[in-house]
């Protein structure tokens, strides 16, 4: 479990929030509006010296410690210290294509994965309702005939440091055609998955859906 000090200064939270949505950022891109340049530089350097941000020739990026922090925080940069409860959808066509969506925030920004997202007790009546909502929000696809086929406990590490700790309710369906999707999603032939930058654990989840039986598994990557 993550044990990190809560970052509570609004400038530092703002910098981390920008970097959570970018692989690399320029100095000017992270500076909050109407913030004194010296004050901004001070707080940026604090984040660097504390190990949350790395600087390279490509620009500023989250360190492993920074990736770990933003994975366990909400949009307001408040730490949530328990494993996330999510739904993931394996939607395939009868001719062997699978629907993937590009991740738009760290960790693993710009990698592809299954349509996946946290369950929300204030929005979802049950996990099936959550899966349908996440599929629509992530891909633009409305598909009601989803089947809960198993659960997975996914722990993702970078350099042996735990980054993500997720309980995944996995849903599956086979449709007759490729539905139109939004700009961050695409249909990929299963044979071409090896050529796609996949989020760790995705291949294992897809493989489990081919068993045609209920499953529970723990995935450590």
What does this structure look like?
There is one protein chain. Helices cover 24% and strands 30% of the residues. The chain is of the alpha+beta class and 221 residues long. The protein has 2 domains: 10-71, Orthogonal Bundle (Arc Repressor Mutant, subunit A), CATH 1.10.10.10; 84-220, Nucleoside Triphosphate Pyrophosphohydrolase (Alpha-Beta Complex), CATH 3.90.79.10. The strands form 3 sheets. The chain has a 5-stranded mixed beta sheet with strand order 6-3-8-7-10. A hairpin with a 2-residue loop joins strand 1 and strand 2. The protein is elongated, with a radius of gyration of 19 Å.
Main-sheet strand order equals 6-3-8-7-10
CATH architecture of the largest domain: Alpha-Beta Complex
Mean pLDDT: 91
> How large is the radius of gyration?
19 Å
What's the structural domain tally?
2
The largest pleated sheet is described as:
5 strands, mixed
Provide the CATH topology of the largest domain: Nucleoside Triphosphate Pyrophosphohydrolase
Distance between the termini: 16 Å
Low-confidence stretches: none
Classified by CATH, the class of the largest domain is: Alpha Beta
How large a portion of the residues is in β-strands, by DSSP E? 25-35%
Element order: H for helix, E for strand: HHEEHEEEEHEEEHE
Identify the overall geometry. elongated
Which structural class is indicated by helix and strand composition? alpha+beta
Number of H- or I-type helical stretches: 5
| Tally of strands | 10
Helical residues, percent: 10-25%
The CATH homologous superfamily of the largest domain corresponds to Nucleoside Triphosphate Pyrophosphohydrolase
């Amino acid at each position: 479990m993550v044990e990190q000090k809560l970052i509570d200064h609004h400038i530092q939270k703002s910098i981390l929030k920008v970097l959570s949505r970018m692989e690399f950022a320029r100095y000017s891109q992270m500076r909050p509006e109407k913030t004194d340049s010296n004050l901004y530089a001070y707080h940026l350097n604090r984040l660097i010296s504390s190990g949350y941000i790395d600087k390279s020739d490509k620009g500023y990026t989250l360190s492993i410690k920074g990736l770990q922090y933003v994975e366990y925080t909400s949009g307001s940069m408040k730490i949530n210290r328990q494993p996330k409860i999510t739904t993931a959808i394996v939607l395939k066509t009868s001719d062997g294509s699978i629907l993937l969506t590009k991740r738009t925030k760290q960790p693993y920004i710009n990698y592809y994965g299954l349509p996946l997202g946290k369950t929300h007790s204030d929005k979802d009546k049950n996990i099936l309702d959550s899966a349908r909502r996440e599929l629509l929000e992530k891909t633009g696809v409305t598909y009601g005939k989803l089947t809960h086929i198993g659960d997975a406990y996914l722990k993702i590490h970078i350099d042996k440091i735990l980054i993500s700790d997720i309980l995944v309710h996995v849903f599956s369906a086979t449709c007759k055609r490729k539905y139109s999707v939004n700009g961050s999603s695409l249909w990929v032939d299963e044979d071409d998955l090896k050529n796609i930058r996949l989020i760790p654990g995705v291949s294992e989840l897809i493989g489990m859906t081919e068993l045609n039986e209920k499953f529970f598994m723990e995935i450590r990557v």
